[in-house]
Each structure stands twice: as structure tokens, then as C-alpha cells.
Amino acid sequence: MRFDLTKEFLEELNRAIHNQDQNWIRENILELHYADIAEIIDNVQMDGARFIYFSLSEDTQADVLMELDEEVRDRFFNSLSSKEMAGQLENLDSDDAADILGELSEEKIQEVISQMEDDEAAEDIVDLLNYDEDTAGGLMQKEFIQAKLDWPVNRCLVELRRQAEDVEKVYTIYVVDDYNKLVGLLSLKRLLFADPKTKIRDLYNAKNVISLKTSDESEEVVRIIEKYDLVAVPVVDLQGKLVGRITIDDVVDIIKEEADRDFQLASGISEKIELNSSVWRISRARLPWLIIGMLGGILGAQVISGFEVGISQVPALAFFIPLITAMGGNVGVQSSAIVVQSLAKGNDLFGTVRTRLAKETTVALLNGVMLATLVYGIAYLFGNIQLGIVVSVSLFVVIFFAAIFGTLIPLLLDRYNIDPALATGPFVTTLNDVLGLFIYFSVGMLLYHM
Amino acid sequence: MRFDLTKEFLEELNRAIHNQDQNWIRENILELHYADIAEIIDNVQMDGARFIYFSLSEDTQADVLMELDEEVRDRFFNSLSSKEMAGQLENLDSDDAADILGELSEEKIQEVISQMEDDEAAEDIVDLLNYDEDTAGGLMQKEFIQAKLDWPVNRCLVELRRQAEDVEKVYTIYVVDDYNKLVGLLSLKRLLFADPKTKIRDLYNAKNVISLKTSDESEEVVRIIEKYDLVAVPVVDLQGKLVGRITIDDVVDIIKEEADRDFQLASGISEKIELNSSVWRISRARLPWLIIGMLGGILGAQVISGFEVGISQVPALAFFIPLITAMGGNVGVQSSAIVVQSLAKGNDLFGTVRTRLAKETTVALLNGVMLATLVYGIAYLFGNIQLGIVVSVSLFVVIFFAAIFGTLIPLLLDRYNIDPALATGPFVTTLNDVLGLFIYFSVGMLLYHM
What we know:
The structure is a homodimer. Chain A is mainly alpha-helical. Chain A has 3 domains: 7-134, MgtE N-terminal domain-like (MgtE N-terminal fold), CATH 1.25.60.10; 146-255, CBS-domain; 279-447, SLC41 divalent cation transporters, integral membrane domain (Tetracycline Repressor, domain 2, Orthogonal Bundle), CATH 1.10.357.20. Helices cover 63% and strands 6% of the residues of chain A. Chain A contains 21 helices and 6 strands. In chain A, the strands form 2 sheets. In chain A, strands 1-2-3 form a 3-stranded mixed sheet. The radius of gyration of chain A is 30 Å and the shape is elongated. Chain A starts with 6 loop residues before the first helix and ends with a helix. At the A-B interface, α12, α13, α14, α15 and α16 of A face α12, α13, α14, α15 and α16 of B.
């Protein structure tokens, strides 16, 4: 039942596209799952994509469009005429339609909207475009199923059948009062087993109804859906009126994107880039950290130059500069990683900052002693005992301070509303480099009696 | 409707716990959502946790137990007697019960299982314990709703009502043949609007049924649920018989865990740790990278010592050692981050390795020229032109090679089935440190004519 895209399949497909072989497409593609068809389209040229896409039924087109690689989708969608765009949008869920449309210019949006024949769908999309895309309003869809308190079950079934045509995935029915205010939930399971004459009022669940406001930020959307284990959550406006719902598949996408962004931020990439982003964009996203790192390096050079006399007397001191900076950086990044992750989960760690620090310093002392002993042992084997003492003592001190800064800096950044994921990148490493050098050479001067 | 845990609430609660005030608990806690109750229990002492927990109804207990912080849950569960444990397990979904039980020793598991009164539940749990926890079998639950092909809708409703008592969240009904083989799906929506006499055979959907095998690995589970936008997926055994289902809330947890693990791996932490892990465990998880980093540092010292004569002649050369190693590390990490992310998404990049390299080297040349110019400019301002040339030329070369290694190393690791996320940590930085030093001093010797 599961489809795997092979090289052979792609070769046959490209031949079929070249020969405009509708039969081959019908036999080998049309029956596949839309996610598989999307994967196929991701891997062919634009003319092939059009050929396959327009062989599909309207419903499948909509599903496939939303499964395409974002970059392929934008390219494909932009290759359509305004008339074709309007037709495609009418098949989509309102949130998906608004997402795609939101990528276009204002004039183009107006042009496409004016071409749409389904006024209600057009209105829904225009409405959604008003919300900031990082809020519950921007994430919600207008397709959901609602029932009024006073309906009996049989009336409800009739109404639902009508509504359900537009709604692909039905999990829960939202119960509203006469003013369209959300008052509770009704599971399909409950409805299925109910007597036809029972009123919704006597069936629905008004306890612990979790909803979001249109203005809630996407982090809050993720937090709520995760915390309450929801597959869909209703969205209400300022008056408490039901205006949309957010489903978990959209939330999974947000979770993935945020994890990606944190990973990139911690790797020193300052804006979201993908494999396919342009060289300019990639270059621009990377420069900020590189420049910070370079300024840190110049600061480090200043520190070392302060010990120039020492180096000219004992040039071997210079040998272990990279060891000291690398270890300071490593320990700092390790310490901050755990703090950053906990902060990302919404834990407020500032109250427990002392416990955190106590633990981190214990770990640092432990690892510091082990590594310092190891490096002293190596120096001893090479017969340079005095230098071994300098390196091992300063390594120990550097590890200790790196752990403290690695813990404190993300907490401080978070306090001042700067994304703490930045900390595992530039801040901690640069600071620890400079500090580590200062410690190393100070210890060296001291022990060499210079 | 949404609850926020405040300091004041906790203070009142602790007073109520201290006074064993059942009334306060009833009025302020019992009506809350189970996720909120779990959050409250996470934040009180063990005796308070027990007091609150055993005031709850059995159903709520089960929900709360699964929402607790993992560490709190283990501690709480271990504080129960075998008899109490058995009672709690009977209320849980089979997959959750197996997860909790799996943490105990073999003898303890036997003891608890023997105390369970519900034989069917016990059997389900024992069955699930046989599967590796990182496979679909280990992730699935035994609670799902199935219907036979030959049932008419009204018989189906009766059977479903019976089955549905055990199944908390019903999304889809799984249709099986007489041998219990999964043959298709039936949505509740469809069933809701069907004529009572219609046979399931004429209602169900046999097309594109996505299922998993018990032996499928958790990565495959995530990939399938994500790709096909599922909220639940049926699991079949080797014979194609329906044995369980996996729901999306469990998959969201896996996605989060994998993202956390990648982030930690890239930060140089070699085994999964949490804020609450013991000092020993944290220390052990961090040592491997620190030791690799230290060996890299010693290798770097060897390289520099080869240029000892040069340093004693021009001690200023030592000043820019940290700048060179930091920049090599930074560029390497940036280059590998994107590759690691794409590999994690299941993209096979080895086919496009040339395109990747071409792009990375272009970005590197671009950034290299800018940064080299910048550093030369700074050196010029400080009046040390010859040193400025050495630093800027070698910086340019180092950035170039760091980008190449940063791209190639994760690809190679992936080729040999080593987690490429390791690359953004130790491998790339250490290699680039050593290589960078060699380039820097070679350029220095050359330009100073030593």
C-alpha cells in the first residue's frame, strides 16, 4: 500500500510526460495517495508538474498542492494565470488558501480574489488575510462544524451533513449559543449513540472547554495544543464568538519549524534558510555571527598582545591557546544547551537559578578535574612539567567559568526577551574565548614568575 | 477557562495540603482540566501529590498520571505499593501502561501484573512489553475501534458503543475481514449519515489505506504520520492482522524528543539528559566531546610547536590564533547545520553533493572576501600592515576549507550510518581548528619569508 519513489519510476514517468501519455499517468499515478503524488511532482520539471497536476481530480489537486515542497509550490502556483489561481484556491481549506495567497503582491491578491466565483470562500480568505500570520487568527481555518444548543439530535444531523461537506476532518462539533458564542463541545461518538429527539443542550460538554483567541501567538497555540493533547482547538474572537479552528497537522509543522530555527540559531545562522535559499540570502544569514566572532577574535588578540613579553620568553605558551579557547567554548555551549531547551519548553528558570548554578558548577568541577589531570598527564609524558601545570590549572579555571557563563547568559537573554537560543551560538563562545585567554596567560605569567 | 498556576495559588494549596483540607481541593482543583491538575502536582511535594491524586476520580487519575513530568511520574509511581500500581495501570491506555511498567525491574513487573484484576488489560500490556520501544509495536496502543465487513450499520453501532467505552479518542473505524486482516477505513462522519441497513462493505474506504508494521522503526512512524497528515495510524502484524494503533499525540512527543536530541548532540552532549538528570549522568554525557576537543587542542599545540621558531621571531603571530580557530569553527558549524537538517528530513543529499559544494564554496568566497577585507582594514588602522595581510589571507583560505569540510563531513557520517548531527559538534570544529592553524602559520612563514 505504501509507495516508494524509485529512479526507474521517475525514468518511466519522464518518458510518459515527454510523450504526453495520459494512459500511463492514469494507471500509475492517479490512484496513489495525494502525499505520494506530491512527492512525485516535487521531483519533475515544471511542464511535467503541470501535466500531472491537471490530470488530477479537483479534490486531489487541492490536497496535492498543500503537500508540495514549499519552494516547488510557490513556483508552480506562480506559473498559473490569475483565473487558474482563483480556481485552485476555491478547492483549498481557507487557511491554506490564505497562506498561499499571502505570498503574492497586494495587486495580485486583489486580482485573484476578484476572479473567484465562490463568494463565501473568497470572503473567508480575505478575512483570514487580516490576521498576523503568527497568531491563532492567522493559523486558523474557517471550516469547522457547529451546532446550536437548542437543536435536537436529528436536526443536528441534517445540518451537520450540510456543513460536513466542506470540512475534511471532523473531530469534534463546536456547540454555540444564539449569539454564536462558543459554549461547549460535542464528540461525534456521543452524537452517534444519542437518541434523535435529545437536545444538544442535554448532550454537550461544557466543562473544561479549551479555546484560543485570534490574537494568541503561535507559541501559545503550540503550548495549548500540546499541553491539552488536542487534535483541534476552536478559536474565538474578542467577544467569545466562534470564528475558526486550528488542527494539529498545522501545529506539527510549527513545532518542526521552531525546532529547525533553534538549531540554526544555535549554529550561528541568524535568519531562516533552506537548502534551496539563494547564495545571497545564505551569506547574509551567516555574516552577523561571523562578524561577532571576528570581533571576539580581535579582542582575543588584544588580550594576548598584553602578554607579548611572556610569549617571546616562553613561546611554548602559545601552543595551547587553541586548546584553552576550544574547551571554554565547548563547555559553555554544553551548559547553555540544556538551559536553552528548558526555556524553550516554557519553564521559568529564573527562580531556580541558584540550584542550576550549583549543579552546573559541580559538573564543571568534576569534568574540570578529570580533564586537567589528563592534560597534565600528557604534558608529563612529553617531559614539559611546568607548562603542563600552567595548562592544567588554567584549563580547570576556564571550564569552571565557562559553565557559569554558559548557564547565566541564556537566562539573562531570556529575561530581556532575546531568544536564548542565540546564546549557544555567538555570545557564550566569544565571551569564553576572551575570558579563557586572559585566565590562561595570567596563570602562565604567575607560574613562570614573569 | 484557561488556568494559570500562580504563586498565590500554590501557597493556598500548600496550606490546604498541610491541613488535609478536602474541601479546598474539591472546590479549587477537581474541576480543572487534567493537564492543569498535572501541572499543579508537578509543583508540590510528594505527600501533597498523593493527597491531590487520590482525591481524583479514577479516569482523571489516569489522565493526570500521563501528563506529569516524566521524572515526577516515575517518583510518584515508585512510591505506590504493587497493589496500587496494578490499580492505576488498569485505568491507563495500554501503551501508556506498558511505558510506565517498562521502567521497572523484571521481578517488579511480574509482581504488579499478577496483582491486576482485569485479565484482558494485563494481557494487552504484557503483549506490548514484547516489542522494542522504538518500533511501531512499542508505540502502539491496543485500544482502537474495529468493524467487520459484513456488519450492517446498526449492528456496527451496537458493537461500537461497546468498544468505544475503552477508547478515549475515536477518529476512524478500522474495517477488518473475517481473519482480522485490515482491509480499509470508515470515518465516523460516514457512519453518522448512513442508512442503518447498509453493510459496512458498501460504506468503507479501501483505497490508500496507510498502515504500519509492528517492526517499523519510530523514525518511519513519524515520517508516515507526517507525510500522510494522519491523526492516527493502524498497526498490523506480519500477517497483516490489525493489532493496534498509534495516535498523533504520541508522535508529537517523538518529534519533540528527536529535535531535543539533535540539539544536544550538536551542542556536544552525547546522551539524552534533562534538567533533572543527576550530576554524574550530565558529567558522563559531556565528557566524550570534551575529550575529543582536548585531543584536538593537543594536536593543535603540535602544529603550532612546529612553527616555534617563527613565533619567537614574530610573537605577534600568536595574537590571532584564537581568531583563526574561532572563524574556522564557526563557518564549519554553519555549513554543516543546513546539511544536517536536510538529512534529518530524510533527503538523500549524496546525489547532489556537487551542487551543495558549489553553493557552499560560493557563499564561503563571498563571506571570506568580506571578512578578510574587514580584518585587513582593522589591521591597517592599527598600522600593522604585514600582519594584516597574513591574517586576512589565511582567514580567507580557512573560511574556504571550513565550508568544504562542514559540508562533506555530515554527508560522509550519514553515508556510514553515523548520526550526522554529531558533525556540527566535535568533528567539524576540531578538524577545522587543526587545519586552520596549519594554514595560518604556513601563510605567516611564507609572507614573513621565514
